[in-house]
Amino acid sequence: MGKDSSLVTRHSSLEKATRDAYGEALLELGKKRPDIVVLDADLSGSTKTSKFAKAFPERFFNLGVSEQDMIGTAAGLALTGKIPFASTFAVFETGRAWDQIRLTVCYSNTNVKLVATHGGITVGEDGASHQALEDIALMRALPNMTVIVPADATETYSVINAIVDYNGPVYVRLGRTKVPHVMPDDYKFEIGKAYVFRTGKDVNIIAAGIMVATAKSAARTLTDQGIDTGVINMSTIKPLDEKTLLQTAKNSKVIITAEEHSVIGGLGGAVCEFLSENHPIPVRRIGIKDLFGCSGSPEELLKLYGITADDIIKATKEALKK
Amino acid sequence: MNFDPQNPYWRERDRFILSKGHAAPLLYAILAKAGYFSADLLNTLRKINSPLQGHPCSETLSGVEISTGSLGQGLSVANGIALGLKLDKIPARVYCIMGDGEIQEGQIWEAAMTAAHYNLDNLYAVVDNNGLQIDGPVEEIMRIAPVHEKWTAFGWHVIEIDGHNMKEILHALNEAEKIKNKPTVIIAHTIKGKGVSFFEGKVEYHGVAPTPEELEKALKELGNG
Questions:
Q1: What would you measure as the largest C-alpha separation in chain A, in angstroms?
Q2: Which of A83, A93, A213, A297 is the most exposed place for a label (fewest CB within 10 A)?
Q3: DSSP per residue, A118-157
Q4: ipTM of the complex
């Protein structure tokens, strides 16, 4: 089982940032779908909505540095039948405009797609003010909201296409840095459906976002050491794929969750909430431990905050010992 | 306004956004009168399972374009609708009523910039300038003056009227339609509780319903008793 091909990550030259895939997907969809409009709050170069802006200037609205107004404007556009994509950094999108999202997007159930980039600690050098570590918790708590965290460029592309055909509020969290390709080329994302790389009899790592690649790497090491390890990409955090989670937990001694987000209220929180009520087994949450971030390179930060493959391996062994 | 209660989501309709959502009872009375629902429903206001929520909810009541209640958000939504209508080349109009206390919200001024930046001449905003907010007179709680100059500075065409004078209201709306390439705001000077001597200008009645005795007296004063 140590040579299981499902855990092999393709060559690093294929690395690409999820925000780049977003920009390309939007550009392509813009050609096919005249009802798509895009809004940004002065960060279109970073969120990659600038590609759409250049190709379809009449359907792109830069609101300047005003996230709250951007969300309200997006809701209004949705009311005229448009499919608005509103983008900025995750910290501003979900934090600065939370009440706007709550009232005019979720409570009013408008067809607004919130696609935020620069989620997580790997924002890096900009430091804590720009590192969204609570965004998933903020969005997950809102009724009517769907929350998606793609693992790589392939999945991002598929997610953006899928949410255009879904009517209702969606939050998609993307990252700044390049990430390895982890999903198969022919993979097709479905809202609420987890992707199982393989299941393990000892431990299963439920991961999202950049941590899927990390989980696969940890799983290879653990499997080599004789610990039967599974990896699941839980890219839809809400609604959670409860069926896959329950089935996995029933055939596993322990569950590890891995995310580039606070251990409070994100994927780890969602998994624990479900398992504690339906199939209580030991869970260890790998994530940011109720802290703010700081400046540094993405690699240094992942290490400093304890969200590396080594941390997953350590947590797994400790959980299995008990 | 052009609208069709039988077809509340008619694409060509004019839109009305009550940004000051706490004036919901008035909106509901008007919607009932316009034929969106039976007037009997008005008695369920704020009661359990009623579509007439304490603040307007677009999910439960047709005729309500967007849910409001958390102040400062309606103008942004109105802007979005106005942008969408322009994209579709639909010549419909968007109206948005704000409170004077409400324009203390920063988002109003973000939206004010947006409407002017995108030349939204299909957008007509109204500031209900009654001078009172929950905690007291606007002038004492947080000064918003000079209101006229602020909107002018933000690139809007500004009209000031007596908000109780129907002639002035209609005149202002007609004037606004002639203004091209910029949004118009009508600052409507009003007296809260107008027409009922013991309500007029009293902050105590901002969010409080009259007692049955007060109601009887008030209706009498309004010539409806």
A1: 60
A2: A297
A3: SBSGGGGGG-GGG-BSSHHHHHHTSTT-EEE--SSHHHHH
A4: 0.96
Distance between CA atoms of A254 and A272, rounded to whole angstroms? 12
The closest alpha carbon to A207, from A179, A235, A181, belongs to A235
- Domain hosting B128: range is 15-221
For residues A207 and B105, give the distance between their C-alpha atoms in angstroms, rounded to a whole number: 40
- Could you report the per-residue pLDDT of B75-111, keeping only the tens digit for each? 999 999 999 999 999 999 999 999 999 999 999 999 9
Residue B188 lies in a domain: yes
Q: Tokens at residue B192, please?
A: 């809260």
Instruction: Tell me if B9 is assigned to some domain.
Output: no
Which residue among A58, A63, A107 places its CB closest to the CB of B67?
A107
Contacts of A100 in chain B (CB under 8 A): 73, 76, 107
B136-193 residue pLDDT tens: 999 999 999 999 999 999 999 999 999 999 999 999 999 999 999 999 999 999 999 9
Q: Are B45 and B52 in contact (CB under 8 A)?
A: yes
Identify the structural domains of chain A with CATH numbers, from first to last: 16-179 (3.40.50.970), 192-321 (3.40.50.920)
With contacts defined as CB-CB under 8 Å, which chain A residues touch B22? none
Residue contact A66–B113, C-beta within 8 A: yes
Please tell me the total count of domains within chain B: 1
- 3-state DSSP call for residue A303? helix
Joined together, the tokens standing for residue A231 give: 């990896």
